[in-house]
Amino acid sequence: MSDSTPATPRPTTTVKVALLGAGNVGAEVARILLDHGTEMAARVGAPLELAGIAVRDLAARRTVELPEELFTTDAEALIDAADVVIELTGGIEPARSRILRALHAGKPVISGNKALIARHGRQLQDAADDAGVPLSYEAAVAGAIPIVRPMADSLAGDRVDRVLGIMNGTTNYILDQMDTTGAQFDDALAEAQRLGYAEADPTADVEGHDAAAKAAILASLAFHSTYTIDDVYCRGITGVTAEDVAAAAEAGYVIKLLAVCERCAGGVNLRVTPTMIPREHPLAGVHGAYNAVFVEAANAGSLMFYGAGAGGAPTASAVLGDFVSAARRLVLGAPAQGAEPHAQLPAVPMDDVRTSFSITLTVQDRLGVLARIAQVFADHGVSIHTMQQKDDPHGSTQRSEIRLVTHRGSNKDLVATVESLRELPFVEDVTGVIRVEHAD
């Protein structure tokens, strides 16, 4: 549907809102709508009514006290009675079916469901385009940080070359604690759980899945193509040790779980990995549970978006920003922004990426070791940027620790180099294999 196709005006004096989900974010959205609805209505141009809140369990404890009469377990009936639908339930189903139900009925949808958008975003966007209504998901990428609309609108006339993001507050808190206090991973994770930054089951965060979903969404916008979470190479932080963090600090780096989406080899590579970045890089100063997205564009240059990446109230702010925009269009009878042309740049596999590795080796301290290691790198066409030999940190006089940072090379060659190093008879351990940004 083109931008010029008019939407069907709604013959209503009140915009009725269906809220699906009353978790931390959903409860805050409901609170703000109830407490500040009159002020928000002035921006929309019509009175607002929270028609109901669909939940699975009516008796569940909420983080915010809300009127009991608003709650229902009949999400479908609530959708059918509403003008705008806000979906904050998470997961794939029944969220996907409910969003499609709303879109097929010509109702704008606002979602914070990163897992769903990262897997089925194209299907949902096509349904929205066919109906001529907006599908908005600012809250699905970086919490309160406004990045979806700037990427889709403000940078639409530019060429984005690379996006780097700290997109998960839990992992950033853990790595920041390891860097600033010397904490071990398990201790930093336990503290994150105690403070409410990490779930009882932190798998989606610490294994990188949460950041990977966000990377797929953001890359789709940045490069005008369609990517899913399956296109993202993903490695979490569970293997990062306090020793790795300390070694990085000594070399002038900090380790972050970094989402990188960049043009290369005729397409775009998407990856989420623990990455060493120089202390002087703006992303190195992102502390605690905060998030940041660093964009490199051909004409705009370097841009950074920073703020709270999670939390009920901050994320609710992003949800309601989308809501006000969608509701205003509805009241005015304005058309939704139609589907944009897609470049369809292919997802580039990791083998074709040029990157840099930091590698730590524990080796037997004997003549010819350094020369043999250097030969392995040469055999694979990989150049060593820096190399430092130290005494064994465990006190053995028979072993040494060697730390190397490579120049940029193909990921395939770098991985092959690491495997060859593991096979050397005098190499007892290969640890701390971490990607490095801007090592050259």
UniProtKB/TrEMBL annotation:
Pathway: Amino-acid biosynthesis; L-methionine biosynthesis via de novo pathway; L-homoserine from L-aspartate: step 3/3; Amino-acid biosynthesis; L-threonine biosynthesis; L-threonine from L-aspartate: step 3/5. Its EC number is 1.1.1.3. Keywords: Amino-acid biosynthesis, Methionine biosynthesis, NADP, Oxidoreductase, Sodium, Threonine biosynthesis. InterPro entries: ACT-like_dom_sf, ACT_dom, Asp/hSer_DH_NAD-bd, HDH, HDH_cat, HDH_CS, NAD(P)-bd_dom_sf. It is an enzyme of class 1 (oxidoreductase). One of its GO terms (molecular function) is homoserine dehydrogenase activity. Its cofactor is a metal cation. The keyword Zinc-finger does not apply. Residues 358-435 form the ACT domain. It catalyses: L-homoserine + NAD(+) = L-aspartate 4-semialdehyde + NADH + H(+); L-homoserine + NADP(+) = L-aspartate 4-semialdehyde + NADPH + H(+). The keyword Transferase does not apply. Catalyzes the conversion of L-aspartate-beta-semialdehyde (L-Asa) to L-homoserine (L-Hse), the third step in the biosynthesis of threonine and methionine from aspartate. PANTHER family: HOMOSERINE DEHYDROGENASE. Belongs to the homoserine dehydrogenase family. This is Homoserine dehydrogenase. The lineage of its organism: Bacteria, Bacillati, Actinomycetota, Actinomycetes, Micrococcales.
